[in-house]
Amino acid sequence: MTVGVCSWSLRPEGPDDLVAKVLETGVRAVQLALDPLRQSWGVVETLSALDGAGIEVLSGMMMMEGEDYSTFETIQVTGGVRPQQTWEGNLEAARVNARIAREAGIDLITFHAGFIPHSPDDPERTQMLDRLKALSAEFQQQDCRVALETGQEAATTLVTVMKELESHSIGVNFDPANMILYGMGDPIAALELLVPYISQLHIKDAFPSAVAGEWGSEEPVGAGAVDWSAFFALIKQQSLDADLVIEREAGDQRVADVVQARQLIEAQLGGISR
Q1: Domains in the chain and their CATH numbers?
Q2: Residue pair 51/23 in contact by the 8 Å Cβ criterion
Q3: How far is residue 74 from each of residues 13, 68, 219, 225, 266, measured CA to CA in Å?
Q4: Contact 59, 245 (CB under 8 A)
Q5: Burial 9-37 (b: 16+ CB within 10 A, else e)
């Protein structure tokens, strides 16, 4: 179990800036957004900068083309593999990202599936699961697994999806704050249901919205509604061996907030690898 930070949380301007900000947080590992490498940073340059600073790449992340998080309604129609108009572009991006992952020695990629319907009879659900299988196949060809980020589906829905996809090297990237932000239920109860499928954990906090159908608010870790004592107690009880990756997507003091999250993890778990 290693503690890392999401590269996009630090809003880096390039590989050297990413290295500097990661080192400021006191961790020595990162989940790496792959799209900047594909679009402008360069794979060799980024990996060389991280390796030279002794920063381990724990996993990668792929954004889906056209995702619009400006409102709850926009992400419901633009998120993940759901939209027809972005599917071919996302499949091609996955092919390129899979080759980048192999070159970087990354064996886990995470992304949002995009509000999978609960009913197994829903034709859109069938199409979305077929697309997830296709994406997974692209990564599997490069010896890489995928994990679906939690939040946009209830845990009970995601369990049924995992059972349907169990032969396709697809797991779960569990984010407790997303369960709160999307109004998808208690994160501790969700964690308990999803433990058998978890490949990685995001450490993020939030408060729920007072209005149904609206975003909750992301908060620094320890300042939101996640019961971290119960969260880490369950991890220990279940002997869950998954990396802990701090994510912060709001606020103007990202490095300080990541440090606060790291300190909370260390207080809960003691001497784990940074």
Answers
A1: 3-269 (3.20.20.150)
A2: no
A3: 27, 6, 22, 25, 37
A4: yes
A5: bbebeebeebbebbeebebbbbbbbbbbb
In the chain, the percentage of residues whose pLDDT exceeds 90 is: 81
Q: Is 68 helix (H, G, I), strand (E, B) or coil?
A: coil
Residue 195 contacts by C-beta under 8 Å, 6 or more apart in sequence? Answer: 234, 238, 240
**pTM (2 d.p.):** 0.94
Contact 55, 30 (CB under 8 A): yes
Place of tokens 């979305």: 128
Residue 258: pLDDT band with limits 50, 70, 90: very high
Per-residue pLDDT of 170-218, as tens digits, reads: 999 999 999 999 999 999 999 999 999 999 999 999 999 888 778 889 9
CB atoms within 10 A of CB 229: 10
Sign of the torsion angle spanned by Cα atoms 6, 10, 13, 14: negative
